[in-house]
Amino acid sequence: MDESKRGLDDFELRTGISRDDIRRLGKVHLFSGLAPDDLRKLLATSSIRRYPDATTLFMEGDDADRFYIVMDGWVKLFRLSDNGQEVVISVSSPGESFAEAAIFDNNVFPVCASAITDVRLLVVGADSLLRQLSENTQFAFNMLGSMSRHLRRNVTKLHQMCSMSSTERLADFLLELSNAQGGAATLKLPLDKSLIAARLGMQPETFSRALAKLKKVGVESVGHDVVINDMGALLDMTKAGPLSC
Fold first, then answer.
1. Distance from the Cα of residue 73 to its chain's centroid
2. For a disulfide at 185, which of 180, 192, 226, 234, Cβ 3.0-4.6 Å?
């Protein structure tokens, strides 16, 4: 076995990060532009970990000594109100990072995080992150870009909640999920409807009413399956906004 292959095998055994994982991580915004060897160096002390559904990853106020990238599954970020009710802040899907900003802000997590499916996560320690930021200019710019995208997403969500009806927000979510440009499409909702409702900033009963209103533009729902009979009509509805909440 040559030295380069032995080094790759040692890296995978030590971190659990496979060659396929490296390929996928190279497409994550946080690591874009980094050569595979540079990415392996950056992740030398990181690890892939699996957690079952409903696992608590951290609680608000815990030390922010790590951040995560979702490889497979879904994670919710939330806060607990004074009466113990969950307020979902965001939901992270495969390819998305979360909790990195907390490392630079008082070093504590400002929210709680929990797996909402079985998940496979890349866990990156804060020490490794800070060291690489000082040594790798490309990664430092990528980190700034990643946090900027999180901010822009939150601004967009706030704008949608203020300017779009719940029906329009759900239509926009379905369009984003389908990635189709026209014709018909069938898709499977990746989360329970209550969690999708939370992601879209609405109550579960409001979500159900919005889904019912979308029947007027050819959207049918059975369980987790959604059939969109006319993508163009759904897109036109989000632009024109004829359906109210």
1. 9
2. 180
Instruction: Report in angstroms the alpha-carbon separations of 104 from 66, 111, 147, 207, 240.
Output: 11, 14, 11, 36, 41
Q: Answer whether 50's CB lies under 8 Å from 119's CB.
A: yes
Instruction: Categorize the per-residue pLDDT at 241 as very low, low, confident or very high, splitting at 50, 70 and 90.
Output: very low
Domains of the chain: 46-161 (2.60.120.10), 164-240 (1.10.10.10)
Burial label, 84 (beta-carbon count in 10 A; 0-12, 13-18, 19+)? exposed
Q: pTM for this one?
A: 0.73
Measure the CA–CA gap between 202 and 195, rounded to whole angstroms: 10
Which is higher by pLDDT, 107 or 112?
112
